[in-house]
Protein backbone atom coordinates (compact mmCIF):
# COMPACT_ATOMS: atom_id res chain seq x y z
CA UNK A 1 0.00 0.00 0.00
CA UNK A 2 2.87 2.37 0.78
CA UNK A 3 4.46 1.63 -2.58
CA UNK A 4 1.16 2.23 -4.41
CA UNK A 5 0.64 5.53 -2.55
CA UNK A 6 4.14 6.70 -3.47
CA UNK A 7 3.48 5.80 -7.09
CA UNK A 8 0.23 7.78 -7.14
CA UNK A 9 1.85 10.78 -5.47
CA UNK A 10 4.60 10.76 -8.08
CA UNK A 11 1.91 10.90 -10.74
CA UNK A 12 0.49 14.04 -9.13
CA UNK A 13 3.78 15.93 -9.29
CA UNK A 14 3.72 18.85 -11.73
CA UNK A 15 5.20 17.97 -15.09
CA UNK A 16 5.23 14.20 -14.48
CA UNK A 17 2.81 11.54 -15.72
CA UNK A 18 3.44 7.86 -14.99
CA UNK A 19 1.04 6.88 -17.80
CA UNK A 20 2.67 9.05 -20.44
CA UNK A 21 4.53 7.39 -23.30
CA UNK A 22 8.27 7.19 -22.84
CA UNK A 23 8.85 7.56 -26.59
CA UNK A 24 8.60 11.34 -26.52
CA UNK A 25 11.07 13.51 -28.40
CA UNK A 26 13.75 15.10 -26.21
CA UNK A 27 13.43 18.76 -25.42
CA UNK A 28 14.82 21.00 -28.15
CA UNK A 29 14.46 18.38 -30.89
CA UNK A 30 12.14 18.82 -33.89
CA UNK A 31 10.22 15.84 -35.23
CA UNK A 32 10.51 15.45 -38.98
CA UNK A 33 7.17 15.86 -40.69
CA UNK A 34 8.58 15.32 -44.15
CA UNK A 35 7.02 12.38 -45.97
CA UNK A 36 6.53 11.42 -49.59
CA UNK A 37 3.04 10.48 -50.63
CA UNK A 38 2.78 7.93 -53.43
CA UNK A 39 -0.12 7.70 -55.86
CA UNK A 40 -0.98 5.09 -58.47
CA UNK A 41 -1.37 6.05 -62.10
CA UNK A 42 -1.75 4.28 -65.45
CA UNK A 43 1.27 4.23 -67.74
CA UNK A 44 1.17 2.99 -71.31
CA UNK A 45 3.22 -0.18 -71.85
CA UNK A 46 3.51 -0.77 -75.62
CA UNK A 47 6.10 -3.51 -75.02
CA UNK A 48 3.45 -5.57 -73.25
CA UNK A 49 0.80 -5.16 -75.95
CA UNK A 50 0.10 -2.67 -78.73
CA UNK A 51 -1.83 -3.00 -81.98
CA UNK A 52 -3.42 -0.63 -84.49
CA UNK A 53 -6.02 -2.25 -86.71
CA UNK A 54 -9.65 -2.23 -87.86
CA UNK A 55 -12.28 -2.81 -85.18
CA UNK A 56 -15.94 -3.70 -85.56
CA UNK A 57 -19.03 -3.65 -83.38
CA UNK A 58 -21.66 -5.95 -84.87
CA UNK A 59 -24.54 -3.94 -83.44
CA UNK A 60 -25.64 -6.40 -80.79
CA UNK A 61 -25.66 -5.36 -77.11
CA UNK A 62 -22.72 -6.90 -75.29
CA UNK A 63 -22.07 -7.57 -71.64
CA UNK A 64 -18.94 -6.80 -69.68
CA UNK A 65 -18.68 -3.04 -70.20
CA UNK A 66 -15.78 -1.67 -72.28
CA UNK A 67 -13.61 -4.37 -73.87
CA UNK A 68 -11.78 -5.30 -77.04
CA UNK A 69 -10.94 -8.78 -78.32
CA UNK A 70 -7.81 -9.45 -80.40
CA UNK A 71 -6.33 -12.70 -81.76
CA UNK A 72 -2.86 -11.42 -80.74
CA UNK A 73 -3.74 -11.12 -77.06
CA UNK A 74 -2.07 -13.64 -74.74
CA UNK A 75 -3.38 -12.68 -71.30
CA UNK A 76 -6.18 -10.35 -70.22
CA UNK A 77 -4.84 -6.83 -69.95
CA UNK A 78 -5.98 -3.36 -68.95
CA UNK A 79 -5.73 -1.28 -72.16
CA UNK A 80 -6.51 2.13 -73.58
CA UNK A 81 -8.48 2.31 -76.84
CA UNK A 82 -8.09 5.34 -79.11
CA UNK A 83 -10.01 6.40 -82.19
CA UNK A 84 -7.56 8.56 -84.24
CA UNK A 85 -10.38 9.75 -86.49
CA UNK A 86 -12.05 11.83 -83.76
CA UNK A 87 -9.48 11.80 -80.92
CA UNK A 88 -11.78 9.92 -78.48
CA UNK A 89 -10.35 7.30 -76.12
CA UNK A 90 -11.52 4.99 -73.37
CA UNK A 91 -9.94 2.55 -70.91
CA UNK A 92 -11.18 -1.05 -70.92
CA UNK A 93 -10.18 -4.70 -70.91
CA UNK A 94 -8.39 -6.81 -73.52
CA UNK A 95 -9.40 -10.41 -74.24
CA UNK A 96 -8.34 -12.99 -76.78
CA UNK A 97 -10.54 -14.01 -79.67
CA UNK A 98 -10.21 -16.81 -82.19
CA UNK A 99 -8.09 -15.91 -85.18
CA UNK A 100 -10.29 -17.86 -87.59
CA UNK A 101 -13.40 -15.79 -86.82
CA UNK A 102 -14.56 -13.73 -89.83
CA UNK A 103 -14.44 -9.94 -89.89
CA UNK A 104 -11.87 -7.32 -88.83
CA UNK A 105 -9.08 -8.42 -86.47
CA UNK A 106 -10.46 -6.44 -83.51
CA UNK A 107 -13.91 -6.87 -82.04
CA UNK A 108 -15.22 -4.25 -79.57
CA UNK A 109 -18.15 -4.13 -77.19
CA UNK A 110 -21.18 -1.89 -77.53
CA UNK A 111 -19.95 0.32 -74.66
CA UNK A 112 -16.53 0.69 -76.29
CA UNK A 113 -18.12 1.59 -79.63
CA UNK A 114 -20.30 4.24 -77.97
CA UNK A 115 -17.32 5.76 -76.15
CA UNK A 116 -15.19 5.85 -79.33
CA UNK A 117 -18.00 7.12 -81.59
CA UNK A 118 -18.04 4.02 -83.81
CA UNK A 119 -21.27 3.02 -85.56
CA UNK A 120 -22.53 -0.54 -85.69
CA UNK A 121 -21.34 -2.60 -88.64
CA UNK A 122 -18.80 0.08 -89.73
CA UNK A 123 -15.16 -0.97 -89.30
CA UNK A 124 -12.94 1.76 -87.87
CA UNK A 125 -9.24 1.77 -87.28
CA UNK A 126 -8.31 2.06 -83.61
CA UNK A 127 -5.16 1.66 -81.54
CA UNK A 128 -4.97 -0.53 -78.46
CA UNK A 129 -2.13 -0.16 -75.91
CA UNK A 130 -1.61 -2.03 -72.66
CA UNK A 131 -1.54 -0.12 -69.36
CA UNK A 132 0.48 -0.72 -66.23
CA UNK A 133 0.04 0.73 -62.76
CA UNK A 134 3.00 2.47 -61.17
CA UNK A 135 3.57 4.46 -58.02
CA UNK A 136 4.88 8.01 -58.37
CA UNK A 137 5.48 10.77 -55.80
CA UNK A 138 2.58 13.14 -55.41
CA UNK A 139 3.59 16.48 -56.87
CA UNK A 140 3.12 19.58 -54.76
CA UNK A 141 0.29 21.66 -56.20
CA UNK A 142 1.21 25.09 -57.51
CA UNK A 143 -0.83 26.77 -54.78
CA UNK A 144 1.32 25.16 -52.06
CA UNK A 145 4.65 26.00 -53.67
CA UNK A 146 6.49 29.11 -52.53
CA UNK A 147 6.17 32.08 -54.83
CA UNK A 148 9.88 32.84 -54.53
CA UNK A 149 12.46 30.11 -54.18
CA UNK A 150 15.08 32.50 -52.81
CA UNK A 151 15.07 36.00 -51.46
CA UNK A 152 15.12 38.44 -54.32
CA UNK A 153 17.07 41.63 -53.88
CA UNK A 154 15.11 44.77 -54.63
CA UNK A 155 17.12 47.57 -56.17
CA UNK A 156 16.14 51.09 -55.19
CA UNK A 157 17.37 54.41 -56.52
CA UNK A 158 16.98 57.78 -54.83
CA UNK A 159 15.11 60.49 -56.70
CA UNK A 160 17.05 63.44 -58.00
CA UNK A 161 15.41 66.48 -56.34
CA UNK A 162 16.36 68.76 -59.24
CA UNK A 163 14.94 66.37 -61.84
CA UNK A 164 11.79 65.82 -59.81
CA UNK A 165 11.24 69.55 -59.46
CA UNK A 166 11.85 70.01 -63.20
CA UNK A 167 9.24 67.38 -64.06
CA UNK A 168 6.72 69.08 -61.78
CA UNK A 169 7.40 72.45 -63.44
CA UNK A 170 6.95 70.93 -66.91
CA UNK A 171 3.46 69.65 -65.99
CA UNK A 172 2.41 72.98 -64.47
CA UNK A 173 0.45 75.70 -66.21
CA UNK A 174 2.30 77.84 -68.77
CA UNK A 175 2.57 80.59 -66.20
CA UNK A 176 6.31 80.85 -65.43
CA UNK A 177 7.50 80.34 -61.87
CA UNK A 178 10.30 82.44 -60.47
CA UNK A 179 12.39 80.48 -57.94
CA UNK A 180 12.83 82.09 -54.55
CA UNK A 181 15.30 81.29 -51.84
CA UNK A 182 13.96 79.32 -48.88
CA UNK A 183 14.11 81.19 -45.56
CA UNK A 184 16.91 80.23 -43.21
CA UNK A 185 15.43 79.43 -39.77
CA UNK A 186 18.70 80.34 -38.02
CA UNK A 187 19.03 83.77 -39.53
CA UNK A 188 17.24 86.88 -38.45
CA UNK A 189 14.21 87.87 -40.49
CA UNK A 190 15.31 90.22 -43.22
CA UNK A 191 13.58 93.49 -43.71
CA UNK A 192 11.08 93.63 -46.53
CA UNK A 193 12.72 94.76 -49.74
CA UNK A 194 11.38 98.10 -50.91
CA UNK A 195 9.34 98.01 -54.04
CA UNK A 196 11.16 99.51 -57.02
CA UNK A 197 9.94 102.97 -57.71
CA UNK A 198 8.19 103.26 -61.04
CA UNK A 199 10.04 105.69 -63.24
CA UNK A 200 8.04 108.25 -65.04
CA UNK A 201 10.05 107.71 -68.18
CA UNK A 202 12.93 105.59 -69.53
CA UNK A 203 13.33 101.92 -70.34
CA UNK A 204 14.22 98.92 -68.22
CA UNK A 205 14.65 95.16 -68.67
CA UNK A 206 11.88 92.97 -67.26
CA UNK A 207 12.62 89.50 -65.90
CA UNK A 208 9.82 87.21 -67.10
CA UNK A 209 10.83 83.89 -65.55
CA UNK A 210 13.11 80.84 -65.58
CA UNK A 211 12.03 77.66 -67.38
CA UNK A 212 13.37 74.10 -67.20
CA UNK A 213 12.04 73.29 -70.71
CA UNK A 214 13.32 75.26 -73.65
CA UNK A 215 10.02 74.96 -75.54
CA UNK A 216 8.14 76.65 -72.71
CA UNK A 217 10.66 79.49 -72.66
CA UNK A 218 10.34 79.96 -76.43
CA UNK A 219 6.54 79.94 -76.10
CA UNK A 220 6.68 82.71 -73.50
CA UNK A 221 9.00 84.78 -75.69
CA UNK A 222 6.69 84.31 -78.68
CA UNK A 223 3.69 85.48 -76.64
CA UNK A 224 5.52 88.68 -75.71
CA UNK A 225 6.73 89.31 -79.25
CA UNK A 226 3.22 88.98 -80.67
CA UNK A 227 2.10 91.58 -78.13
CA UNK A 228 4.72 94.00 -79.44
CA UNK A 229 7.15 93.53 -76.56
CA UNK A 230 10.69 92.46 -77.52
CA UNK A 231 11.78 89.30 -75.64
CA UNK A 232 14.97 87.26 -75.41
CA UNK A 233 15.72 83.66 -74.31
CA UNK A 234 19.08 82.90 -72.67
CA UNK A 235 20.39 79.48 -71.68
CA UNK A 236 22.26 78.81 -68.43
CA UNK A 237 22.98 75.85 -66.13
CA UNK A 238 23.24 75.13 -62.41
CA UNK A 239 24.14 71.88 -60.60
CA UNK A 240 24.41 70.09 -63.93
CA UNK A 241 20.90 71.10 -65.04
CA UNK A 242 20.10 73.43 -67.92
CA UNK A 243 17.49 76.17 -67.68
CA UNK A 244 16.33 79.00 -69.87
CA UNK A 245 15.68 82.56 -68.73
CA UNK A 246 13.29 84.90 -70.54
CA UNK A 247 13.63 88.67 -70.37
CA UNK A 248 11.65 91.44 -72.06
CA UNK A 249 12.97 94.77 -73.22
CA UNK A 250 14.57 97.04 -72.59
CA UNK A 251 11.07 98.47 -72.65
CA UNK A 252 9.23 101.36 -71.11
CA UNK A 253 8.53 101.06 -67.40
CA UNK A 254 4.86 101.54 -68.13
CA UNK A 255 4.85 98.25 -70.07
CA UNK A 256 5.05 96.08 -66.93
CA UNK A 257 1.23 96.08 -66.34
CA UNK A 258 0.74 94.95 -69.95
CA UNK A 259 3.25 92.10 -69.47
CA UNK A 260 1.42 90.92 -66.35
CA UNK A 261 -1.88 91.06 -68.20
CA UNK A 262 -0.48 88.45 -70.62
CA UNK A 263 -0.26 85.97 -67.76
CA UNK A 264 3.25 86.66 -66.45
CA UNK A 265 2.17 87.76 -62.99
CA UNK A 266 5.66 87.21 -61.47
CA UNK A 267 7.44 89.54 -63.91
CA UNK A 268 9.60 92.21 -62.29
CA UNK A 269 12.19 94.84 -63.25
CA UNK A 270 15.72 93.45 -63.42
CA UNK A 271 18.40 95.40 -61.53
TrEMBL record:
Pfam families: SPOR. One of its GO terms (molecular function) is peptidoglycan binding. InterPro entries: SPOR-like_dom, SPOR-like_sf. Residues 174-198 are annotated as: Disordered. Residues 198-271 form the SPOR domain. PROSITE patterns: SPOR. It comes from the Bacteria. This is Sporulation related domain-containing protein.
